[in-house]
Amino acid sequence: MSSFDVSIAGLTDPSTNLAPQPGVVTLVVNVASKCGLTPQYNGLERLQAKYADRGFTVLGVPCNQFAGQEPGSATEIAEFCSATYGVSFPLTEKVDVNGPGRHALYAELVAVPDADGYTGDVRWNFEKFLIGPDGQVVSRFDPRTEPDDDAVVAAIEAVLPR
Fold this sequence. Notes:
- 25% of the residues lie in helices and 14% in strands.
- It is of the alpha+beta class.
- The protein has a single domain, classed as Glutaredoxin (3-Layer(aba) Sandwich), CATH 3.40.30.10.
- It has a four-stranded mixed sheet with strand order 2-1-3-4, covered by helices on one side.
- Keywords: Oxidoreductase, Peroxidase.
- It holds the Pfam family GSHPx.
- Belongs to the glutathione peroxidase family.
């Protein structure tokens, strides 16, 4: 199975499928509005602005599984992201990233190891997964890794369509 084989609805438009698309490099990030890591939205937005015209997108995936830090409705989440961080990248419906209700996209993602060899459940909000233009997961980054960390930028640049 590839990340192209799943469907994940848009936050405010459930009829839109925001799953990774062929030819597009996608950084999938489970996000939350009330987390100590929420300021990472700034770095994610900078990545979006820098690479969007080269076949890249951030895909924010709201999740309320970590200490209830994404409790809002779809409208509240969208308004917070837009007003507070100027988020322009797509946001999906709120989903579970762990456990028996884990979304199919995350079932694919969590099998990939990070730089330290960790695989398995998402550890916290803002864990990052980089999907190449061919739909394969190429990198995984710890939640505390800032979006503009050299390792994240190098991984994105290595798989961007030329």
